[in-house]
Amino acid sequence: MSIGPRSGEPGVGAERTARKGLLSLAGARRRFAALPRADAVPAAGPLLEELQATLRAIVPPARHRILDGPDVRGFLAEAWTWLEVLRVSRRVAAGAARHGVRAGPDGGRAAAEARLFELVARTQHLVTLVPRGRIDPGFPGRCRRFARGRLENAAFDLGALVLGLRLARPRPGSLSVPLWFAEDAEQGRPGDRIDLGTVCGPTGALGIVLTRGLGRGGTHHASPRKPLRLEASLNGTRLVLRRRGRAPVIVAGAGTPLHAPDLGATRGSGRDRRRGAALRVVRRETLPGTTILLAPRVLSGRRRLRVLREAPGLGHRLGRALRIVRVAWPEAAREIVRRTRMIVPIRETGTVSYSMAARPGISFINVTGKSLVDLADDLLHETAHHRLHDLQWGTDLLVRGPETRDAQAFDSPWRGTLRPLHGLLHGAYTFLFRAELFRRILASRRCLRLSGVGLRPAARRFVRRELIREKRMLASALGDLGRASRAGLLTPAGRRLLRLMRAWSDDLGRG
User: What is the pLDDT of residue 386?
Assistant: First the structure.
């Protein structure tokens, strides 16, 4: 096990995580097939079968990257969560304590309700499902209906991924998948676009957009009032998109280098061609010189997240921030490019950046008022979270139990609040990367200036001050992690990681 890119090792076994992903896909397929008719998601089974067949036809390195990315792991996290919510909500409705739901003092229904609340509380939808702050008689029914909707949405996302894979890596045989337009801020997706996964083929990552009212730059997102459904048919490299009551949109040679420059679409009749196609296959924006996707901005409002327009020039600024990392710490820059699949710019007061284990490789970064050093810091910080999430996907670092998962029992020197052990571990790990980056930036001032991303005196003072602060915070956090280790809360793999973190911190102290 390695601590990070400073050692030059990959750190996380791609083959191991890929095997786990394949096994989890097979398990999800069985669970979907076992759903009762009232809760069935008919599209899920055939799409999972097609995904498994498509993955088998892809060479191992590319297959591993797909299985380890946000498309597959995001689907699995969503599917397993809401399949379990669906199962337990049926138990609550039946009022019986059966296999997998432990009976409590008030009988099976009370135990099942407690389990259902626990599952929902781990998602971001607690307020939606418990609007009055307490469980009422309608809680199980709301959970069941909501879970079915989430699983149906996940199946449509899965269909888009399968189509994207087949376009990026064509293989014999035809394919037909249902798609729909639906905004999803968690994936930086506006309501007038269908993202065909984060897979980059010969023409990059693709999407299908509604072109009504698009400006010259193609940045106007006029989301349809109701989810608009499509049927996408692929035969070789010929893609046909069909909407009810409209002539089909045909993309000849979709996804091939020969037709990539325009990715144009033609309509079935002359009249339709004069009006212009309402659908178009587009190449999604990436950071210059990388395969990292750049999503439109996301605004955090009082009630929900909203996807806005693309931010002009943001890709260039993030590219310059990445150059700072590349000059000061080349191994860390390679780690950013390797593990970051997409950046979602956010506008939210008081938020710096964040990521989610259920969306590996997607970095949510508040870009408002940020300097290039701030953006470089955010890019690497979220990459460190992705790296640790990847490690935890295949290895238990903490002993399983409420003491490590839920108990707010450890001081976080960065937040000034109590945090669970999992949060403290992530904080110490990711801020080690920040401290190392700042140390290297100070040591690379001349190279940075020659590369056109030199730091002004005020920026250098900021970096120096923050490095001193990080060393103090890390000493406190690593001390608490050491006490947790002595209390038996870390697994052998977690203790090895802690030893490496301490050694890295000692190196920083001597630097």
Answer: 94
If we measure between CA atoms, which residue out of 364, 326, 319 comes closest to residue 342? 364
Phi, psi of 209, deg, nearest 5: -120, 155
The domain total for the chain is: 3
Spell out the residues 6+ positions from residue 173 whose beta carbon is closer than 8 angstroms to its own: none
Strands 206-210 and 193-195: antiparallel
At 135 the pLDDT is: 84
Domain of 137 in residue numbering reads as 1-170
> Is the domain of 272 the same as that of 301?
no
pLDDT given at position 319: 96
Question: Residues with Cβ < 8 Å from 463, sequence gap 6 or more?
Answer: 373, 438, 441, 442, 455
Say whether both 111 and 199 belong to one domain: no
User: What is the share, in percent, of the chain residues with pLDDT greater than 70?
Assistant: 84
Residues 449 and 308 in one domain: yes
Closest listed residue to residue 160, CA positions, set 211, 194, 209? 194
| Mean of all residue pLDDT scores within the chain | 84
Please state the pTM of the whole predicted model.
0.85
Grouping H, G, I as helix, E, B as strand and the rest as coil, residue 301 is coil
The token duo for 303 is 């009630």
Residue 376 to residues 101, 372, 381, Cα–Cα distance (Å): 46, 6, 9
